[in-house]
């Protein structure tokens, strides 16, 4: 189930992103936001798998069976963050309110020239975090990505904001790993989304929101090999034009002994999952994995 997202077409990302880009450019945020209502209804009605995934997740985070109102709110929150993503990438940042929490530890390490890893998730707006780093904090940032995934989105982002698109760093083999070490040695902050597995990932099963979920071990194992500080980060959407960015130190250095590698890895993945769960309790409609995430 943890790799089910790979079999889903990117209809909820590419199509909506392209349409939002065109409409926001011609009509502005307020007018475009009105059209998000019928768009959201359309996606709910035509995506039974997405509805089922939303219902399963919301039942866990809300601790009660969700109704149509809650499911609609979940999909609408996703659509709203996509619209805001387009506006932010196009440089139209006026009116947005962003509160930043616990960023000083990351900034202090950056000032010392120390490279760090940022573990994000499909939770809220990662683009808000990326733009925050690129434009406001002046951090040297790279975002790891699979070169064969989301090529249409990558090209669209490049058209909207070449500076932000330049932060993308493909990683697929040993040569890319060497490049990653060079970036960290040069004081870069390197981000990756750590909640979705690829076919190459080893999985570990951990408790997450009261159920068993298989999460990728690769981000934690990568952090262990690199030996740099690791932070978790989320950009929560709170309604209107309000966002919150949170940065939490997961470990100054992740050490995984060979004698108990999988047990130690599972412990760190559980800590990462616990951080996600904490923020999902604060902003429950910000979870954007619309596929069955938990094991039956």
Structure description:
With 296 residues, this protein is of the alpha/beta class. It has one domain (4-286). Helix content is 50%, strand content 19%. It is built from 10 helices and 9 strands. The protein has a 7-stranded mixed beta sheet with strand order 1-9-8-2-5-3-4, sandwiched between helices. Strands 6-7 form a two-stranded antiparallel sheet. α1 runs antiparallel to α3 (68-89). The longest helix has 33 residues, at 14-46. The radius of gyration is 19 Å and the shape is globular. The chain starts with 13 loop residues before the first helix and ends in a 14-residue tail after the last helix. The model has no long low-confidence stretch (mean pLDDT 85).
The global form is: globular
| Main sheet characteristics | 7 strands, mixed
Counting structural domains, the number is 1
pLDDT below 50 for ≥5 consecutive residues: which ranges?
none
The ordered H/E elements are HHHEHEHEHHEHEEEHEEH
Mean pLDDT: 85
Number of DSSP strand runs: 9
Q: In whole angstroms, how far apart are the ends?
A: 9 Å
| Global structural class | alpha/beta
Strand ordering within the main sheet: 1-9-8-2-5-3-4
Helicity level: 40-55%
Q: β content, as a range?
A: 15-25%
Oligomer: single chain
**Which radius of gyration do the C-alpha atoms yield?**
19 Å
Count of helical stretches: 10
How would the blueprint of this fold be written?
Layout: H1 14-46, H2 48-62, H3 68-89, E1 97-101, H4 104-111, E2 116-120, H5 126-137, E3 141-145, H6 151-160, H7 162-165, E4 168-170, H8 174-185, E5 189-193, E6 203-208, E7 211-216, H9 218-226, E8 230-239, E9 242-251, H10 261-282
Parallel strand pairs: 1-9, 2-5, 2-8, 3-4, 3-5
Antiparallel strand pairs: 6-7, 8-9
Helix pairs in contact: 1-3, 2-3
């Amino acid at each position: 189930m943890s790799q089910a997202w790979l079999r889903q077409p990117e209809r909820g990302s590419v199509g909506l992103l392209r349409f939002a880009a065109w409409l926001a450019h011609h009509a502005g945020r307020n007018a475009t936001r009105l059209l998000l209502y019928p768009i959201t209804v359309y996606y709910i009605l035509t995506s039974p798998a997405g509805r089922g995934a939303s219902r399963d997740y919301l039942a866990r985070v809300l601790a009660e069976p969700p109704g149509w109102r809650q499911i609609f709110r979940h999909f609408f929150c996703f659509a709203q963050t996509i619209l805001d993503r387009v506006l932010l990438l196009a440089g139209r940042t006026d009116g947005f309110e962003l509160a930043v929490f616990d960023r000083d530890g990351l900034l202090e390490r950056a000032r010392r020239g120390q490279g760090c890893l940022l573990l994000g998730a499909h939770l809220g707006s990662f683009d808000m975090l990326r733009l925050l780093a690129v434009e406001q904090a002046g951090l040297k940032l790279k975002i790891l990505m699979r070169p064969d995934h989301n090529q249409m989105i990558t090209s669209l982002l490049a058209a909207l904001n070449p500076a932000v698109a330049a932060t993308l760093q493909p990683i697929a083999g040993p040569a890319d790993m060497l490049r990653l070490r060079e970036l960290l040695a040069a004081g870069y902050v390197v981000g990756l989304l750590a909640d979705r597995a690829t076919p190459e990932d080893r999985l570990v099963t951990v408790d997450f929101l009261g159920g068993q979920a298989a999460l990728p071990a690769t981000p934690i194992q990568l952090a262990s090999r690199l030996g740099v500080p690791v932070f978790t980060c989320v950009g929560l959407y709170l309604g209107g034009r309000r966002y919150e960015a949170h940065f939490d130190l997961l470990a100054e250095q992740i050490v995984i002994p060979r004698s108990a590698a999988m047990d130690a890895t599972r412990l760190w993945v559980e800590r990462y999952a616990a951080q996600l769960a904490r923020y999902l309790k604060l902003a429950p409609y910000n979870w954007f994995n619309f596929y069955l995430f938990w094991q039956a």
